[in-house]
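Case study 2.
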Amino acid sequence: MSNIKDIIDKYNLYSDVYTYKNNTRILDTKEGKVVIKEKKKDKNKIYNYLLSRKFNHFLLCEKEYRDFEVYPYVEEVSVMEDAKAMDLIITLSFLHIKTTFYKENNLDDIKKIYEDTLNNIDYLYKYFLDLQDVIEKREYMSPVEYLLIRNITKVYKSLEFSRNNITLWYEEVTKQKSSRYVLLHGSVCLDHFLVGRDSLSFISWDKARFGMVIYDFLDFFRNEYLNVDTSRLYDVYQSRYKFTREEELLFFASVSIPWKIDIDNSLDGCIKVYEWVEYLEKCNELISKQNQKYEKVTQTE
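Prediction:
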């Protein structure tokens, strides 16, 4: 983005005071506060589509220029993270309800998801096996290495679980003629959701796209697993927009894949491994809980 003072002068956005919050600039103008953001793509089609679907939980751009956008400033109400997350999930389910449509399955696209997932699993499996081999050959392990080795079996179990689920998904979805699609926000997290006095709004729609419904909650889980009870929020979401069995299999296959982690013996490196282990445990908690429910339903049928 251009220098903030140059932008203010160029477009007559007179402001004596401007502050920074995350990646946005807040201008205190004579007409009130506004938010100025770098324009990454034209989102007018997205906004018009949302309005056509009777979904208004977003902020409309007030002014739009070649390289930036101006939005109204929303003074957030002070709420606990769990309460904000609950509002977010309920609003997210509403977004998906209002934008649901069915699309004929493209077998090439389905096969690509399947093969890309398997390739990623195979890559990570080999990566962690090699990493384990290197660490276990050391005479003395560092605290970071010890923490990783203590939890390495969780990685292999998660990867095998993902492999089983993506295989089951592929077998099931190829039997179906169509799948559900929605407008995905594309970057769901607490920082991209505003709780105002009279409004609930998603912001930062730069990654919005049409796609399979599972990916928004997948983003939310990965972004917020350390901050809120993602397992309980999954139940809340499912009570409003329940995944089909095929969607559930794809979600579990995707969420179970941990990210590649490098060994860094600094304090920050230790924290990263700890958070990585927490992710594996949160995944196991979520999946175990859902599998128990599925088994109970199956037994009663």
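Residues 82 and 228 are 6 Å apart (CA to CA).
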